[in-house]
Design a protein that fits this description.
- Chain A: InterPro entries: AAA+_ATPase, ABC_transporter-like_ATP-bd, ABC_transporter-like_CS, Oligopep_ABC_C, P-loop_NTPase.
- Chain A: This is ABC transporter ATP-binding protein.
- Chain A: Keywords: ATP-binding, Nucleotide-binding, Transport.
- The complex is a heterodimer.
- By secondary structure, chain A is an alpha/beta fold.
- Chain A is about 25% helix and about 25% strand.
- An eight-stranded mixed β-sheet of chain A has the order 6-7-8-3-9-10-12-11, sandwiched between helices. In chain A, strands 2-1-4-5 form a four-stranded antiparallel β-sheet, with helices on one face.
- The longest helix of chain A is centred in the middle third of the chain and has 16 residues.
- Chain A is globular, with a radius of gyration of 20 Å.
- The longest helix of chain B has about 40 residues.
- The model of chain B has no long low-confidence stretch (mean pLDDT about 85).
- Helices cover about 80% and strands about 0% of the residues of chain B.
- Chain B has 13 helices and no strands.
- By secondary structure, chain B is an all-alpha fold.
- Chain B folds into two domains: about 280 residues, MetI-like (MetI-like fold, Orthogonal Bundle); about 35 residues, no CATH class.
- The chains are: A alpha/beta, B mainly alpha.
């Protein structure tokens, strides 16, 4: 097992109190596995991604452990975590377009970054990786402003994986891209795993269709908790959790005209995590909720590798 | 690049033309007649002699010609390097008077502007990361930067000069001395220079420190800083990048502030009776000395324009984004 997360709790400090963005997440990620992490905005998927590499100032590690390759990650300790960043865990941020220092040429920036982490730049290796994602080599002698959005994105992908991290977190990397670039990015990420630049990957997104193409496993989160986790095909074709089903139903299908039937979303909105309701958190919006849902549903393995947190599943 | 600079030069040329024209206009619209003053100074009683003197001076300064002719003559003379003859110090040429004052003004302005900028930036960047400093010293910066130059100058002269008796409060050097290249004279010069320098330095320092503090905080929270932190880059590297990027708006600020700083220096000179251009302007106004006033203003306008042009060049060198803009010819 590459990554084991157990009972992870991360809260946000706000003026009104603590927001329980992650409230007891438990899951595992195998070597070479790509995990697609999906859910609505505010379900905690970005918080999970951030918790695994760098918490921002408002986040607090309340409980639970993260073990990567047999070593526990000191996720609550910003300084101690530095040893693991980039080498063991790396990140392709949501803001890849603005992630590069605008006043440094890329070659210089990469050199300085690697030197600060005690590594030297292997130019041949760097150029090979740039070739792999289709970046011309002269990009290294340019400033970030001279690159297109897609080029910046790919450059960030190359930089983030230069030290061959064990786990790569790709946070909403495709949200700002058009469809053809999305495809290229997805292909590049798969290529990285094949070439062994990264061992496993967490792909945070709200695009289930795209996740289906690149992820081995899909994990659906709801209100800071795991709702369902299963192999990608199973999630898409035979979901068990009512939330996953509704999420899939709200996607448009190719070739279907929505003249007769209006595309329905999921009525209602996710509960406030400032003071979350007891029992199943999806209860208020769930069409099949019953009395037992007043109790917290445990995460049960209904079939091999198919984990669902629902009484009715 | 060429297009950018030729465009900039055109703008500077236009500014120069307008500024010089205004310089020429202002003294001529001041109430009072300089020739009448000179004649009165001569203390002549006979009306014929007064009339003859008036005619002589009017002819000498060219006041008998129509205004437009005076204006054209003025431009012509300026390009020959002739700024006319001072009325106040008649018959010393204006250029000689200005030459005597310029070293004092430059010696005051250049160190105070550059040092306050460098120290203010360093200090602001440092304070941005220290809560204690941020809460104690920066409020002092706000007070300093809100202070009018001459008021701080008066305060300093009173506290350090009159009460403590540490520094002289007037003149560029002791009245008992003659300028020469001896150590005693240089020390005396520095001694007189300290207070005017301090008042200029302190007021500007507060402003730069505050600006830099805000810029650094903004840069440290920017995406590229977050990305570097997420990759475990040491704080030193991130701060270096942040500082370098935060300095760019400060350079623009320097260009914008230059005129204000020069004006502040002139007023400060007057407070300390420092023999620079500021004191010269005051004297020129008091004596209706058109030519001296024109000459001094011209010098200041030239100085500010040249300094701005240098900053423009520096900016192009340090910020790659301006160069990218030039390629698209948007600059």
């Amino acid at each position: 097992m590459s990554l084991q997360v157990s009972e992870l709790r991360v809260y946000y400090r706000t003026l009104k109190g603590e927001v329980r963005a992650l409230d007891g997440m438990t899951f595992e990620l195998g070597d070479g596995e790509i995990l697609g992490l999906v859910g609505e905005s505010g379900c905690g998927k970005s918080t999970l991604g951030k918790s695994l590499i760098r918490m921002d100032g408002r986040m607090r590690h309340v409980g639970g452990t993260v073990v990567l390759d047999g070593q526990e990650l000191p996720i609550g300790d910003d300084r101690a975590m530095n040893d693991f960043r980039f080498r063991e865990v790396s990140l392709i941020p949501q803001y890849a377009m603005s992630a590069l220092n605008p006043t440094r040429k890329l070659r210089k920036m990469v050199t300085e970054l690697l030197r600060s982490r005690g590594s030297a730049v292997d130019t041949a290796e760097l150029e090979r990786r740039m070739d792999q994602v289709g970046l011309p080599r002269e990009v290294l002698d340019r400033y970030p402003i001279e690159l297109s959005g897609g080029m910046k994105q790919r450059m960030v992908m190359v930089i983030s994986t230069l030290l061959d991290p064990s786990l790569l977190i790709a946070d909403e990397v495709t949200s700002a891209l058009d469809v053809s670039t999305q495809k290229a990015v997805a292909r590049a990420l798969l290529g990285f795993r094949e070439s062994g630049y990264v061992k496993s990957m967490i792909f945070v997104t709200h695009d289930i269709a795209l996740t289906h193409h690149i992820a081995d496993t899909i994990m659906v989160m709801y209100a800071g908790r795991l709702a369902e986790k299963a192999p990608a095909d199973v999630i898409v074709k035979a979901p068990r959790h009512p939330y996953t089903k509704l999420l899939l139903d709200s996607l448009p299908e190719v070739g279907v005209r929505y003249a007769d039937r209006r595309l329905e979303g999921i009525p209602g909105s996710p509960p406030s995590l400032l003071d979350p309701p007891t029992g199943c958190r999806f209860r208020a919006r769930c069409p099949i909720a019953g009395d037992e849902c007043a109790q917290d549903p445990p995460v049960a393995e209904l079939a091999p590798d198919h984990h669902v947190a629902c009484w009715k599943a | 690049m060429r297009r950018y600079f030729s465009r900039k030069l055109l703008i500077y040329g236009l500014t120069f033309f307008v500024a010089v024209t205004v310089n020429w206009l202002i003294p001529r619209f001041m109430p009072g007649d300089p020739v009448a003053g000179m004649v009165a100074r001569a203390n002549v009683a006979q009306p014929e002699a007064v009339e003859a003197m008036r005619a002589y001076y009017n002819d000498l300064f060219g006041f008998d010609q129509p205004l437009w002719q005076q204006y054209v003559n003025f431009w012509g003379a300026m390009f020959r390097g002739d700024f006319g003859i001072s009325i106040w110090l008649f018959p010393t040429p204006v250029s000689t008077v200005i030459n005597g004052a310029v070293p004092y003004t430059l010696g005051l302005i250049i160190p105070s502007v550059l040092l306050s900028w460098v120290v203010g930036n360093r200090f602001g960047a440092y304070a941005a990361r220290r809560k204690l400093l941020d809460n104690t010293v920066l409020p002092v910066g706000y007070v300093l930067t809100a202070m009018p130059y001459m008021w701080l100058a008066v305060l300093l002269a009173w506290a350090l000069g009159v009460i403590a008796g540490l520094f002289p409060v007037a003149g560029g050097y002791s009245f008992s001395m003659r300028p020469n290249w001896s150590w005693t004279f240089v020390l005396d010069l520095l001694h007189h220079w300290t207070l005017p320098f301090l008042s200029l330095f302190l007021v500007a320092l507060g402003g730069w420190a505050i600006g830099m503090r805000n810029m650094i905080i903004y840069e440290l929270e920017s995406d590229y800083s977050n990305y570097l932190s997420a990759l475990g880059a040491p704080a030193r590297l991130i701060r270096r990048y942040a500082f370098r990027n935060a300095v760019l708006p400060q350079i623009t600020g320097l260009a914008l502030q230059l005129g204000v700083l020069v004006a502040g220096a002139l007023v400060t000179e007057i407070v300390f009776a420092y023999p620079g251009l500021g004191s010269l302007i005051l004297k020129a106004i008091q004596n209706q000395d058109f030519f001296l006033l024109q000459g001094t203003f011209l010098f200041i306008v030239l100085g500010v324009l040249i300094a701005n042009f240098i900053i423009d060049i520096v900016y192009v060198v340090v910020d790659p984004r301006t160069r990218a803009g030039m390629a698209g010819a948007q600059a």
